[in-house]
Design brief:
Strand order of the largest sheet: 5-6-7-3-8-9
CATH class of the largest domain: Alpha Beta
Largest sheet: 6 strands, mixed
Distance between the termini: 51 Å
CATH superfamily of the largest domain: P-loop containing nucleotide triphosphate hydrolases
CATH topology of the largest domain: Rossmann fold
Number of helices: 11
CATH architecture of the largest domain: 3-Layer(aba) Sandwich
Structural class: alpha/beta
Helix content: 25-40%
């Protein structure tokens, strides 16, 4: 379990993390989300003792990271896939890490096989692609068979097969009862991977809840209706002050009404329904809505288009 209490980090006048408190429980993949500059990386660095908090503290399984003996046996982390010495092979890097925490050399070969790097284990890490470096970072995190795992952007550089693998892998680790905390900008991937979310903006907590609750809280649920009487139903729904959109003659997308309300209205007027499906909004939609006031840098579409044009001209 990870417990952050009143976590604050200042760099001069800049407040990177502001009185942040949350709990990450075992048995779930918990996504750590926020706009650029929200303080996610700083928070994870403070968890691992790489940055000292200005105020507050983080406990991992009841202890500060600095108080852990052989910390790789308790916490595994991937924060920067390219931090490995470029002239050291993948196996040599893992053997060095293993010796520092009293981990057997047999475990090195086990994690290399787990992440699919056995065939390139003797190659220098400096020649690895970003995807291979990510796999080596994951192997390093797994080395001590830890109860708690922290991953910062773990799917960067991975191909679709690799992304699918790491998603299933993290979910499998959580199913074993481990604490898995993952920061990512890929919201579509987080929607598939994370059961729980911690969302921050400008260093402050915005939400801590399940992924489903976060999406529902944005209030973006709509209802898809297919009916040969779509035109009549659209008129009736309009009279009920519902927002109705249509893309095809027999299809409606309705905001402001539940499936039950639409079904009852159709039944009252003997309108045949072929489909009536509630459509939950996406994690991306909810994230954009919930963090709109916490984005550090905002650019209008017009400004973005102008900047792009200038870049092309140059």
């Amino acid at each position: 379990m990870i417990e952050a209490r009143g976590l604050t980090k200042r760099y001069g006048q800049k407040v990177a993390v502001d009185d942040l408190s949350f709990t990450v429980k075992p048995g779930h993949v918990t996504g750590f989300l926020g706009p650029n500059g929200a303080g996610k990386s700083t928070t994870m660095r403070m968890m691992l003792g790489l940055d000292n908090p200005t105020a507050g503290e983080v406990h991992i399984n009841g202890k500060r990271y600095s108080d852990l003996r052989n910390p790789l046996r308790t916490v595994g982390a991937l924060l920067d896939a390219k931090w490995v010495h470029p002239n050291r092979s993948a196996r040599a890097h893992l053997r060095w890490m293993a010796r520092s925490n009293g981990i057997s050399m047999q475990r090195v070969d086990e994690v290399l096989e787990q992440v699919g790097l056995t065939e390139v284990a003797r190659r220098n890490a400096g020649g690895f692609s970003l995807g291979m470096s990510q796999r080596l970072g994951i192997a390093t995190a797994l080395l001590g068979d830890p109860e708690v795992l922290l991953f910062d952007e773990p799917v960067n550089g991975l191909d679709p097969e690799g992304i699918h693998w790491i998603r299933r892998f993290m979910q499998g680790l959580a199913a074993e009862g481990r604490t898995v905390f993952v920061s990512s900008h890929l919201l579509s991937e987080m929607a598939l991977t994370a059961e729980e979310l911690v969302v921050i903006g400008r260093g402050k907590l915005i939400a801590q809840c399940s992924t489903a609750e976060f999406v529902d809280s944005a209030g973006s649920t709509s209802v898809l209706v297919r009916s040969p009487g779509a035109q009549q139903l659209q008129q009736l729904l309009g009279e009920q002050e519902c927002t109705v959109r249509t893309s095809e003659a027999d299809r409606l997308v309705v905001d402001g009404a539940t499936t039950e309300q639409i079904g009852e209205l159709a039944a009252q007027h003997q309108i045949v329904l072929h489909e009536l499906t509630a459509q939950r909004g996406s994690l991306e939609d909810a994230f954009m809505q919930m963090t709109s006031d916490a984005v550090e840098y905002q650019t209008s579409l017009g400004q973005a288009t102008e900047l792009t044009a200038q870049g092309v001209a140059r």
